[in-house]
Design brief:
Chains A, B: Keywords: DNA-binding, Transcription, Transcription regulation. Two copies of one chain form a homodimer. The first copy, chain A, is an alpha+beta fold. Chain A has eight helices and nine strands. In chain A, a hairpin with a 7-residue loop joins strand 1 and strand 2. The interface between A and B is large, with 46 and 47 residues. The first copy, chain A, binds a DNA duplex (19 and 19 nucleotides) through helix 3.
Chain lengths: ~250, ~250
DNA sequence: AAGTGGTCTAGACCACTTA
DNA sequence: AAGTGGTCTAGACCACTTA
């Protein structure tokens, strides 16, 4: 009654099955950010197991940053608009303000269209899916700081089509609306081409730092973004320890 | 008798104290890679607690990649020369061979010296410490692939002074000899200067990808390295999920 | 005062792996 | 056959937090 697994995951241990159940509830959005998850006592009854077993699961989810544990009032699905380590890394506003500079951004371009053949392959999409394509320029102290070129999979995030992105930049908006599962990064240095040099106000051929990131929810691509920074003045930093489970992950 | 904590960490729970004890044993090198750690039964007696408590600790250490659990023969400190996710990320040989190219490297320069004032600050060193400075060029398919400029803190790794680095490049050699605690990265794009363009056989001013990494063991800097890649042809990639405790960390 | 999570116990049975 | 880790139980006491 509690589990809805169709796949015959017979070899999973009890706490692994419970973990997967709850993870699914969160990642599909059935339990949205802020949702109060059942208490350990309730989960114990629901899964007809001991409290230690569900405690292990919820503790693990908390360490992974998916839930927030609180006494007396109970645990909730992590509100993704809170100041998580992940948000700090993904929000260019934080980067800029950490440098002590004023931040603003504007949307330069916005198009809804079908995926090209290359995009169907790269994003694992069928040709019937529609994409929202955004170009966004981020400023630090009034100067161009980062060019963001983004594709959003509208079959995963249909609300994006009617969103203006005037209040919140696409990155943080997505973090608030779509729980994600996995991310992949690619980092490279390139010479600025014509368009990039104009957007970022750097000479053509100047070194720029390229960060490409693709993000999934379960098996579907949520978004792919390409961030271009003037290379000489900007740097990404990250710190981590191998012995902690969740920390500012990598970059 | 089992613990040697001097600091009054009174607020730590029992399993946190045990975790810290074992972590210290590993990170200081008292328990070197491959060392067979006490069985859960032995730890249970040593700390006069239940098996669940030590099991929780060792499971956590295994998830963090510090120990390798094996039935019957017992758990051991993670052999850092094995194919761990961390090693794959840190070993340029892996990068090159993943591209299907032949790999080799050579040491271009090797100097033992005192730290400059700037280095004393950056590495938190006193002026009496000595540093080993290495320049190393990595090749892929016979072509220059990456320039490595490294400083090694000889007070943490005295064995490095007599090491030739002929068999093993400095990065993997350090991974085998020094357990580390924390790492910090800085990534940027730059234009190749005179020396770099010669080393890497790229035009002066061409975009290069710069990765700077500093690594600590407990509170001491182990090494600082600056890796320079021809930017146009190379890219770093990384993949991670927020719900797993240890994975190819960020980058 | 009462609900919740944090931690710990003292057992148990089993699977896996090597001797 | 025997040692080890993997998992789970059914309790317990407590700290914290809000009602």
């Amino acid at each position: 009654m509690a589990t809805m697994n169709i796949r015959p995951e017979v070899s999973l241990s009890l706490h692994q099955r419970i973990l997967k159940d709850i993870e699914d509830n969160i990642l599909t959005g059935r339990w949205p950010p802020g949702y109060k998850i059942p208490s350990e006592q309730a989960l114990t009854e629901q899964y007809a197991c001991s409290r230690m077993t569900v405690n292990k699961v919820v503790t693990q989810l908390a360490r992974a940053g998916l839930v927030l544990r609180r006494r007396k009032t109970g645990s909730i699905v992590m509100p993704q608009n809170s100041q998580s380590a992940i948000l700090e890394i993904y929000d260019i506003r934080h980067e800029v303000e950490a440098l002590g500079l004023d931040y603003h951004f504007d949307i330069q371009d916005r198009t809804v269209r079908s995926p090209t053949k290359a995009e169907q392959d790269a994003l694992s999409l069928s040709s019937r899916r529609r994409l929202l394509q955004l170009s966004c320029l981020h400023y630090a102290g009034g100067e161009p700081f980062c060019l963001e070129e983004r594709l959003i999979n509208l079959s995963v995030v249909p609300q994006a089509e009617s969103e203006s992105f005037r209040e919140l930049a696409p990155g943080p908006w997505l973090l608030q609306h779509v729980p994600w599962n996995a991310a992949e990064h690619r980092i490279a240095a390139e010479a600025a081409d014509d368009a990039t040099s104009k957007y970022l106000s750097v000479p053509k051929g100047a070194p720029v730092l390229l960060v490409e990131r693709q993000t999934w929810r379960l098996d579907e691509t949520v978004t792919r973004v390409r961030l271009t920074y003037p290379g000489a003045q900007h740097a990404l930093t990250a710190r981590f320890t191998p012995t902690q489970s969740l920390n500012p992950l990598g970059m």
